[in-house]
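Can anyone check this?
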Amino acid sequence: MVPDSPSIELTQQERVVIVSFRNTIELEEQDEAGLALSDARTDTSTAATLLDLADLTFADSTLLNLILRAHADHQEQGRPFVLSGPYHSGVQRLFEITGVTEVLELAGTRDEGVRRVQELLDIGTMPPDGPTS
């Protein structure tokens, strides 16, 4: 996996890789953020990915695009991909304005996100047309 940076951290909890984005993901960190999400998706010691955005203070369309690509890659592979908050107001607003709240699997807290990932793993299927909650 990619090394941790001040804004990106990877940890593991049971069968879940947790990628945490903090503060802001600067332009020079975009590649590292994409690599972290890709590494999480291909980690054979786990079965799902949780993207923890609770400490992310700013997100723009570039980062949103990166998250949407990761979501599509995870779906293609049949691997659960859940985002967790609580979301900063600017991040929440970006999600609402762009309509991704209808596409992405969102949880209010990290614990809720882990539970949702476990539910998806236990039922053995991904939601066919987006989130179920």
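Reply from J.R.: I decoded it. The first strand starts at residue 8 and ends at 13.
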